[in-house]
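target protein:
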Amino acid sequence: MFILDGKPLSPDVAFTTGGIQYPANWLRLATPEERAAIGITEEPDPAPYDQRFYWNPDLPKDHTQLVEQWVAQTRTTAGTLLAPTDWMVIRESDNGVLVPDEVKARRQEIRDFSGTKVDAIEATTTTEELAAYITGPEYGAWEVVVTPEPEVVTTDELEFTFSGGATGVAIF
């Protein structure tokens, strides 16, 4: 980041100093010596931060308001995931056509995920804890992850003879 008179300069924006106007590409084309000659210094860019949780790298947003926001967002996501099958529930109520058990199970799973996420959000006590939970893998998952059992492989041997008379064994 380029600094002139204590203020940051954008690399592709024209600026004026000492009564001289410099073109937008000057900062990129100038040598460090040319920049230093007119008082421009270069500092490292500030550390990146998640603007959803912080006003700046050192100033977190209000935790209570963030909890309300993320609880509402979680419930909205759950509602969005439930919406495509709402018609089945209404049809069951109106006509008695049963909702398939798989659909009922998935709908309950979504409600359970939502409840677990809301509980975890409300259990945080700082903005840093909330940010860590929301950006972690637990918050983003809305599916049960099933780890498949390793496949058992059996081997069979097959003896064969090459055209030259040599023999070999193949393992399958």
